[in-house]
Each structure stands twice: as C-alpha cells, then as structure tokens.
Design brief:
Layout (H helix, E strand, L loop, with lengths): L5 E3 L14 E3 L10 H11 L41 H11 L4 E6 L2 E8 L2 E6 L2 E6 L8 E3 L2 E5 L8 E5 H4 L6 E5 L16 E3 L4 H4 L3 H4 L9 H8 L2 H13 L7 H6 L4 E7 L2 E6 L10 H11 L32 E8 L1 H11 L2 E7 L2 E11 L2 E7 L5 E7 L6 E8 L30 H4 L42 E3 L2 H14 L4
Parallel strand pairs: 9-12
Antiparallel strand pairs: 1-2, 3-4, 4-5, 5-6, 7-20, 8-10, 11-16, 12-13, 14-19, 15-16, 15-19, 16-17, 17-18
Keywords: Membrane, Transmembrane, Transmembrane helix
Length: 507
Amino acid sequence: MDLPDTIKFKNVPPQYQQYYPASTILTKSCDVEFDDNYFTVALSNGGIVDSSCISNTDVPTQTKKCTDGSTPTIYLNGYKLGWFTGNAQTVKEALIRLFNKLLLIVALSSIARSVNIEFRKYSLSGDGVTVNLDYTGVDEIPDFEADTLYYIEQEIDSQGILTVDYNKLANSTQGYAGKRITDFEPYKSSITTTDASFFSIGTENEFTNLKTTTGLSTSELGCATTLYSYNYGYYGLLGYAVKALNGANISPSISYVLANRPDTIKIINTPSGTTTIPQEKTCDHLFDQDDLSVALNKAGIVDSSCIANTAVPSSTSSCTGGSTPTKYLNGYKFGDFFGGVDSVKKALIRFGPVIAQVIIGGIQEIKLIVGWDNSKWTLVDYNSAGGHILQKVDISTVEFLQGEVVFNTQPSGGGDPTGCTSTSPVNATCPCQTSDTRPACVSQPGDEQPTTCTSITKTTPESECPCLKKGDIRDYEGGICASGSFRITLSLILLAVVVPILSMLWG
C-alpha cells in the first residue's frame, strides 16, 4: 500500500513539539509497526491490489506496475477505515450499507480475527476450530459499572486445564468477575487521589536504572510474544508493578508466563458435548490478555535473568542455571475498568502502573501511566534506543476512559495472607478470602448490605458499607457512590470480553 512519504504536523503546542516535529519521514519496510491511521490514508490514496501483482514478502519501491510489469487492478481506491459505536441494530445497518458480504473484521489489539455475523449469530474461526455463539434475542447491551475491575474468573487447575463454559459465552459479561476498585486500599499509606502528585514506582530519579526501563535485547526481540507485550505496554506494566508492589527491580520474563499457560482448553456444554484443545507453548503464540492472566495467576512472574525471554522453556520449576525462581505477582490477574480521570488515579494508588487511554496532540492513545504531577500524567514512552523514558502530558477532562491493571484476587498459596486479620483493610496485601467477615468482602456491589449497615448516611464510607447498584443514598453527583455505569458498545464488548476468551482457543 502507498504509505505517505512524510508526515507533517501543524499548530503543535510548544510543550509537544519535541514529540511531534514539523516533518517526519516515514520508513517503508516490513519492520514498520502497523498504524491504522497511516494504513487508512494509504488505502484512500492508492487502494489495494491482489498479492499476485505485488507480493506480501517485502515492500516494493514502486506500485505503478505489478512485479511482472503489468498494470495493477486496483480495488477500494478512495476508501478509508472507519469505526462506529452502537448496538446490534447499528451493526446490521452498517452491514447492509458498507459490505456486500456479512463479514466484519474485529481486532484484538493488533491481531485480527474474522467474525461472520448473520443477525445475532457469531462464528469465530481459527486454526480449524470454530465456535458459534447465538445472540438471538439478546439485543440489550449490558452495563459495565464504572470503577469496577473486570477479570476472567476461570483458573488453570492442577492438571493444567482451563475450563470454559460454552453457555456463559453467550452473555458478554458472564465468565468475567467484577470487584470495585475502592474495595482495595492504597498500597502506600497516606496517599489519595487529591494529592498534587504521585509516582508509583519509587522515585523518578531511580527510574532510569530500573531493569524494566532498559528494554529488550536483540535476542529477545526474536520472541514475537515478548516483543508484542513490550510494544503494547504489558512488559512495562508487569515489571513496574513488581517495583511498585514488591520493591524489586526485575526485567519480567514473558517466556516464563507463556510456559505456564494452560496445557489444554476444555469447552464444556457445547452443542456437541465437551471439546478439548491442546495448547502449544512457543514464542509464536498470539498474545492474549486473558491467556496470560490465568498463567500469571497460576505461577506469577520471574526475572528474565532466571528464565530468558529468548525462548519458552519446557519447565519453570527452576531457573536456567538450576537455582530456585523468585516469584512475584503470584495470584494476580489482569483487570479492566471503565471510568474517568479519577478512576485512573484510584487505580494508580491501589495497584501501581495503569495501561489507559490518554489524549496526546488531540489524538487518543493507549499508554502506560505511572503517576501524575499536578495537571499532567506521568507516563512511560519509548526512546530511540528501544528503552523506556518518562513523559509528562496534560490530563484530559474526557469523561470516559478504559484502563487495565494487575491486581491480587487470591493470596499466594491460598489461605489468609500472613499478618491479615478480620480488621485489616481490603487491599492487594489482604484481599477478600472465603468466609471473610470484613464488610467489603461480605457485600459485593449490588448484593444485600451487611447487617451492620442499618443506618447509612451520605458520609458513610464505602469501606464500611459497600455501595448498592440502585437506591443508595450516597449515589448523587460528587457522592461516595456516584461512580455511575457505562453502556459499552457492541464493538467494545466483542473486543474486550468475548474475543479474549475465545482467542485462547487458537494458541
């Protein structure tokens, strides 16, 4: 495709000019990271041709002629990629106007999968495995509560099997659990979202010397899943979370997490019975948030000096040199949340680094946020050498944001964490346990209030009496329970909920 030769930025505010130079020459090669904005202007400018004309093996220096000298037959000239929001009816309206086949492409991060849509029936296919979902009569899009962490509730059993209930996949939120962000206490004492500044990973002065900051070596770049996790912030999220929560300086071993993925995916209650799908564990595995979430929950993460990021080991019981691995974040999972600026700050002071949306130069981007400094986010970006640097950008006042963290749902090894009592605050160190009597654990959002919550006032703390979904006296603008809810569009549900679970089937 005819990517632009040069990108020019106009009217860039002085504080952003170092990030957006007046003119940038684009490199056109197979090593250039995919960017849908560049892709769409290239499609509009030159359309697309068959690969028999110009092969997909490399990027040609010219596209006026096919490789054999013939004139290209050009399709979709003048077209652009477009995103829309809405519900099932919106999808149908788009299909009958924009497509001559019932085919949409949905993207899971940068990984595309085809979804055949016929009314409310969805068929996701990959590597010879097809899973059909019937959404007939389920036109209502579910509410996702703001300030609530959503995470995959399934776990890998002792036999290495991850069991997925087919029946639950028909409802976008089933198969996912939710816990309110404010059920957890800040991991450092005396910090609040109203503080003028906060930095989650030690001090800014020591940031440069952190092992995660250095980035990947040349040999590590050869492991595709490690590279992807680095490019999209998960490598930094894990490494800096270990620094924030455990005080340890590591470069996270993504290979270790990959090795602890499920051995088998078992799908129960399918129309044809139970389906089992063996999983390969290689560097070529497609990156999937939920897949790595259950692996992290099972075995935590170790330093890459223990298990290198260059290949996926057959065993993780010991380091490459034979020593015993030091594990971090054992029992943790990835959790997604929706909310506003204050929601991101709530997450930062409770879980450390947050992958979230920010506005840079008027463009919405996904970045790794590690704190704030007055009216600016402190986030992690990449330098020319492939390492990490800190960047300050203005905090936008947008009302809707999506974020992601790692948090502890169960203590390592089971049972009550050491030092936790019935009066300990619910936080990453002392999460809710089975038969936990603490008020925040007895009543989850929307459940009945504990018997001790008989006289709630507008100032009753949520830690004592969790917020009800409806009818809570504290649910008013600016009130303790005024988190509200967000109606997520069909496209986001497919991306953030249904597709992640199913994409594990093609590991």
